[in-house]
Amino acid sequence: MIDFMNFERIPYLTLVIWGILAIAFVVALFTSQWANAFVTIVALTLTLLPSVFSNRFQIQLPLSFLAAISLFLFATLFLGEIFDFYNKFWWWDVLLHASSAVGFGIIGFLFIFYLFQGDRYNAPPWALGVIAFCVALAIGTLWEIFEFAMDEIFGLNMQKSGLVDTMSDLIVDTIGASFGAISGFLWLKGRSLGLSGMIDEFIHINRALYHRVSQRINNKDNAEK
Fold first, then answer.
1. What's the Cα-to-Cα distance from 175 to each of 102, 104, 118, 172, rounded to whole Å?
2. CB neighbour burial string for 79-114, b if at least 16 within 10 angstroms, e if fewer
3. Residue 172 in contact with residue 102, Cβ under 8 Å?
4. Same structural domain, 50 and 109
5. Same domain, 36 and 95
6. I need a labelling partner for 103 at 20 to 30 A (CA). Which of 139, 142, 172, 219 fits?
7. Same domain, yes or no, for 13 and 104?
């Protein structure tokens, strides 16, 4: 269960999005807009899942992670589908797929790096990069399957132009996943592609999951005091 009493663990942006979705759901019910009500409740449920996952598995998600996930789902399902941003702005779909693929690339890297217990010296950077890329692309593919299922089962239009839309999304996912995976690869090499701070923050607050780097982090913290 989400610890709603500890608001410090929930970004203000996420709380605002929850409020907007809750109000939109009630309005959709009273106006008998059942499709909008369904999309809204799905969006609200999905934005709750990261916090549930964090509490269930005792993994601390940085506030920036939670805010980014909530904003992405809000922009995709609520603004994109209900307010038709996909048709109003041609770049909306490209932006969301690219940003999500980068994020999934980072998540894939952090997960695989966890399997190595944070041993940055024994974990082959190229292998972690390739696996992180595959994880991100697999998630992007599952999202395309989700869009297809929503269109077929509930009569939505998430795929827009069908095959062209799906392949365009997968191409953008590939580019974004590459960027995220390369960011993890360069982090292991001691370099940066602009996302090293996000990786450092996640590992820092979840140092118990990355046993091999925890000592290095502790030494760094002691040196800064």
1. 8, 12, 26, 5
2. bbbbeebbeeeeebbbebbbbbbbbbbbbbbbebbb
3. no
4. no
5. no
6. 219
7. no
Residue 81 DSSP SS3: helix
Residue span of the structural domain in which 194 resides: 90-225
In sequence order, what DSSP letters do the residues of 90-154 get, joined into one string? TTHHHHHHHHHHHHHHHHHHHHHHHHTTT-TTTS-HHHHHHHHHHHHHHHHHHHHHHHHHHHHHH
| Last residue of one domain, picked from the residues 46, 63, 83 | 83
Map tokens 């999951």 to a residue. Answer: 209
Q: How far apart are CA 20 and CA 38, in angstroms?
A: 15
Does residue 219 sit in the same domain as residue 120? yes
Number of domains in the chain: 2
Assess contact for 182 and 129: CB atoms under 8 A: yes
Can you give the pTM of this predicted structure? 0.79
The answer to whether the beta carbons of residues 96 and 176 sit under 8 Å apart is: no
Return the residue matching tokens 């960027």.
Answer: 179
The whole-number average pLDDT for the span 147-152 is 86
pLDDT confidence bin for 158, thresholds 50/70/90: confident
Assess whether pLDDT exceeds 60 at residue 192.
Answer: yes
